[in-house]
Amino acid sequence: SVSENGPCQLTNAAQTDPILDPYSWDNCFNVLYLCPPIGVGFSYGSLSSPNQNITTAFVTTGA
């Protein structure tokens, strides 16, 4: 979630302009989020799908 890990925060529900979060993770660390392909880890996909179909599904989802 942007509010937990991003560099900005909203101080209340009515505020529309974000402010910099002084306690953000990116002040001390770099964070890289990886999305594994279908069929790996907790992702879902048909086990009977050939690798080409899995690759096509992964690329077309914009992951």
Automatic annotation (TrEMBL):
Domain of life where this protein originates: Eukaryota
Protein name (database record): Uncharacterized protein
Keywords of this entry: Carboxypeptidase, Glycoprotein, Hydrolase, Protease
Organism from which the protein derives: Lepidopterella palustris CBS 459.81
Record InterPro entries: AB_hydrolase_fold, Peptidase_S10
Ribosomal protein as UniProt keyword: no
Family: Belongs to the peptidase S10 family.
Swiss-Prot/TrEMBL GO biological process terms: proteolysis
GO molecular function: serine-type carboxypeptidase activity
Any Pfam family: Peptidase_S10
